[in-house]
Amino acid sequence: MGAKKSLTLGAMFHVTPLGDEDETQTYQRFTDLAVSLENLGYEEAWVTEHHFNAYSLTPVPTLLMSHFLANTRRLKLGAAAVLVGFHNPINVAEQLATLSALAPGRVLCGFAKGGPFESQNAVFKAEQSESRERMNEAVPAMLDFLKGETVTHSGHFYQWDNVDLTPKGGFSHREAFIASADDSSLTMAARQDVGLMAAQFWDLERIERNAGVYRQANPKSARPDLMAARGLFMDDDPEQARRFAWQHIESFRAQKAQLWGKGQGPMAKLSPDELLQRMLVGTPQDIVGQVLALHRAGVTRLALNPLTSSPEQRLKQFEWFMLAVWQQVQAALNADLSADLSADLSARHST
């Protein structure tokens, strides 16, 4: 009960076009990247949901997941995350069930309330003040559907009678995640026994705090399956790594500002040093330590987002991480596991 979990390695896809590249070329480039990541040994890739943004071509994450699943054999695909307030929960459940029937055991899905994106909320007629309550009601209802049972639901926002989901699919609560730092949503996630997601600008303290709230609310005091996205830039010169990373972060932050409208997003409130501390930036050895710190904070799934717009540099960062960082991380985690097992055996013998 409460045992530490292993660490799964994945990638975060921000599907951004380059120069005069058209949408078809952009999608093909990320399809090629998914194939390359599978061949390198990465286990999963995550797709965002963004609307009306030329820098992020991901308005329907489950559709993109279906395409990437069809072009790979083992790679798991996840949504990070479906913005629940913009969708009919029954339709989302049907999509996940269908995907799970097409690619059994390879579908993951995070759920979020949706940010205070003025233009998006207006178009989808989603009241920002209700978005969290909608998510907290919708996710348990969707999970009931996905159990394969006939479901009646009488909630504040959603109601239906005797609905039987087809296909059944087999999507499990173990493949669901909640992207939130709000106590009510963390408590809902814990009671539903689903995982958590951490944004790439959240610090270790916030991640640990969220995991603590989850454990307190979980009936078995279990640790959450916790996915964290993290920006990545490695260089043998740590200062050069910081310079290149910061250049990309500035550009990314400007793109995000278009989504937030008049309000400032959370990234705008952080200094350069604060943002870089929340990324994996430095030499390979620096990053080994940073990844291990994430695992100690409770992270069980790591989704890397190389901090570069160059496709060649992005793939190089993924390759370099696998060769220079991941092997050392795995060795350290295996050593920790052996030490924990030895300590557990000693404790049992002493009693």
Largest sheet: 8 strands, parallel, barrel
Helix and strand sequence: EHEHEHEHHEEEHEHEHHEHEH
What is the helix content?
40-55%
**Category by helix and strand content:** alpha/beta
The tally of helices reads: 11
Question: How far apart lie the N and C ends?
Answer: 19 Å
In words, what does this structure look like?
The chain is α/β, with parallel strands linked by helices. 49% of the residues lie in helices and 17% in strands. The chain contains eleven helices and eleven strands. An eight-stranded parallel beta barrel has the order 1-2-3-4-7-8-9-11, surrounded by eight helices. Helix 6 links the parallel strand 7 and strand 8. The longest helix is centred in the last third of the chain and has 40 residues. It is globular, with a radius of gyration of 20 Å. The model has no long low-confidence stretch (mean pLDDT 91).
